Amino acid sequence: MTDRRVVRLHEDDDVAVALRPLGAGEHVDLGGHRVRVLADIPAGHKIATRDVGSGKRIRKYHQTIGVSLRDIAAGEHVHVHNVGMPEQQEPRQPQAGNASRIFDADRRDTFMGFVRPDGRVGTRNFIGVIASVNCSASVCHAIADAFKGDAIASLGNVDGVVPVTHQSGCGMSSTGEGIALLRRTLMGYVRNPNFAGVLLVGLGCEVNQVKAMTELLEPLDPCPMRTLVIQEEGGARETVSHGVAIVKELLNVANRATRTLVSASRLKLGLQCGGSDGYSGITANPALGVAVDLLVRNGGTAILSETPEIYGAEHLLTARAASSDVAARLLEKLRWWERYAAAGGGELNNNPSPGNKAGGITTILEKSLGAVSKGGSSSLAAVYDYAESVGESGLVFMDTPGYDPVSATGQIAGGANLICFTTGRGSVFGSKPVPTVKVATSTGLFERMPADMDFNSGSIVDGTLSVEETGEQLFRLILEVASGQRTCSELNGMGDREFVPWSLGATM
Q1: Rounded to an integer, what distance in angstroms lies between the CA atom of residue 390 and that of residue 193?
Q2: Whole-model pTM over 0.90
Q3: Which domains, ranges and CATH numbers included, belong to the chain?
Q4: Per-residue pLDDT tens digits for 96-142
Q5: Residues contacting 67, CB < 8 A, separation 6+
Q6: Sheet containing strand 268-273, strands side by side
């Protein structure tokens, strides 16, 4: 197709995507036949490439994204006013895929990382101040605030002090799924290799007791961890004073660490997309998929997540699962989400968001097909529970909500040492202690938010680079960030308040 105003992703697709606003009365070339635009169509939205009868499946990516709610004529704007969800989705049968091809050790890429005593590798070197309960959150922030600005300028190997606070830890059952999930998430942060040391701060009377959390540590856990309990210290001011002294000790130890050359196999990359638009599945997500395939071939790990946002596209993952057990486990997660949504009076089809729709995404099927492309073409090696420690290399899946801060929190608790976040509407998300690489879906967004976007994948629709070339460049940027290059969110000071653990169970 030579008309640079639109792109049709497969010759059998019923729609093409507008690369710039199309005005009613214009004519566009849709692969050898001209179509008259029947209504104004915003950039990123879809135009019908042919007549589609009422009730017929509509295809994009050579996959079903919905059904027509009425007759749709070639040249019409195809969106929520004339497209709905099919009554029955395509079959979701587990299949076993092939193992991913891995480069020989001497061919693997490298980066400069912080090697921890147990062999794990950090991309950053932070000290964490972690709250057991919301009641100790202000104290944690006060301790961390003492090290802002030039307070640690003389410590050249330390990236900073991160407060990790949340809204839970009490008013909940002392047993069961809710508190187990919170503790697993918090202790996952304690163990994240981007922390060189941690101070855990509790109030004293909360359900989520500091002692109970420390008992979850294994005898050989390498991360130095100290604890404080406000009621035992004599109050907030006393705890802040003592906490500042402890953090100073931890910082001096952390500053002894230096970056060393390590294999790209030591990277664990969390994959996120937020504020998606009509370009997400054409540019940023498939480019990230190319980068993921390169990482997997280097022996590294990529964590695909956001379970509600693969809904309807899960067959693309089960088809390349490493085993039928892995495929079945993924499908069980989706069945759980169907029950979970129904119990709350909702459904998984109640997506995409208003911002997604404004950007041109019509149904959850369309959104999911784009989201799954972040995982590239590698074999799906394993499926993990939320915040579960990820031990398998290759492409894996972690069960998380679609809400970006909650999903990224689970990935970091699972061991991710870098996050790659695609966005079409423009997200300013940060995720200390883990750097976040923000990938813009279009050149327009990259130029509109230059202080927030790290990488422009709009070159794909601009016609200057292929998906493969763009993905290769993104992979190189990921290695540079892993080696210490600052991301936009880091330069902007983002990431101190984006710890949002998934909350399950009753609040009492």
Answers
A1: 13
A2: yes
A3: 6-84 (2.30.130.110), 118-259 (3.40.50.2300), 269-491 (no CATH)
A4: 555 678 888 788 999 999 999 889 999 999 999 999 999 999 999 99
A5: 55, 56, 57, 58, 83, 84, 85, 86
A6: 380-384, 394-398, 301-304, 268-273, 418-423, 436-440, 455-456
